[in-house]
Every structure is written in structure tokens, then in C-alpha cells.
Design brief:
Layout (H helix, E strand, L loop, with lengths): L6 H17 L2 H7 L4 E4 L4 H6 L13 E4 L3 H6 L8 E5 H8 L3 H19 L4 H6 L4
Parallel strand pairs: 1-3
Antiparallel strand pairs: 2-3
Helix pairs in contact: 1-6, 5-6
Length: 133
């Protein structure tokens, strides 16, 4: 189940993301130089099924995803041709924020840092311990 995201919500999300990136410490910006960031409205059904997150008839709740090798893996798999990627999804994050701009900013920031953490080989438990679960 997906709802269309309004242009107004898309613009709000993108402006908040830009605000976050403008405020990011240099170390996080350097990390983003290591892996492309893609922003999509919703995760595809195929992607959700692939990672076991699909629930028929329900809104997607996958806010972000790191795919491809982590930084540590990529050193071992340099010739594999696989490129790492961070994706964040507007719809699930907007639904979680429920119209609250402050919460939207927090959810985008946590999602982005969480997925960056995966690129640098942090586990779910390590990210949770750091407050980015």
C-alpha cells in the first residue's frame, strides 16, 4: 500500500534534508563522499520483499537502506563492480513524523546516520547503542 506524496511534502522533506546536510559535521560529510545517497518517495515492493520487510496492504515502514559492500568489504571486493548505496525514503519518514517538522528533522537525521553507520560496518546493535537504532 502506497500513498502518493504531495509536492508540498516532497519539498518540505528535501528542504529539511538540505538543512541537515548544511549542519552536518565535516566528518559526516566526508563519510557521504564515500557512498552515494539516493532519496526516493517509497521503497519498491520488490525491494521490501527482497529484504523481508513487505506486509501486504500496509504502508512501508522502511525508512532507509544501505546496500552493497560496506567500506570494509569494499576494500576486499574492489573488483566486484558492486557500488554501495544509501537510500532514504520520504514516505515512511514523513508518516513517522506525522506533520511535526522537528520530528521530521530528527527522523531524517537518525535514518541518514544509521545508514552511514552500516556503510562503516556498524551493526544494528552498535547503532542502537549510539542512539541511531
Amino acid at each position: 500500500m502506497t500513498d502518493s506524496i504531495s509536492q508540498k511534502d516532497r519539498e518540505l522533506f528535501d528542504s529539511v534534508l538540505e538543512e541537515i546536510l548544511d549542519e552536518f559535521p565535516d566528518e559526516y560529510l566526508r563519510m557521504l563522499d564515500e557512498v552515494p545517497l539516493m532519496v526516493d518517495d517509497e521503497p519498491s515492493v520488490e525491494l521490501q520483499k527482497e529484504i523481508g520487510a513487505y506486509l501486504e496492504g500496509e504502508h512501508a515502514d522502511l525508512m532507509g537502506l544501505h546496500s552493497g559492500p560496506s567500506l570494509l568489504d569494499s576494500k576486499q571486493l574492489q573488483d566486484s563492480g558492486t557500488t554501495p548505496l544509501i537510500q532514504i525514503f520520504r514516505g515512511p519518514i514523513l508518516r513517522e513524523a506525522a506533520g511535526n517538522r522537528k520530528k521530521l528533522k530528527r527522523e531524517i537525521k537518525i535514518t541518514l546516520i544509521h545508514e552511514l553507520g552500516h556503510h562503516f560496518d556498524f551493526s544494528e546493535e552498535e547503532l542502537e547503542d549510539r542512539g541511531y537504532g
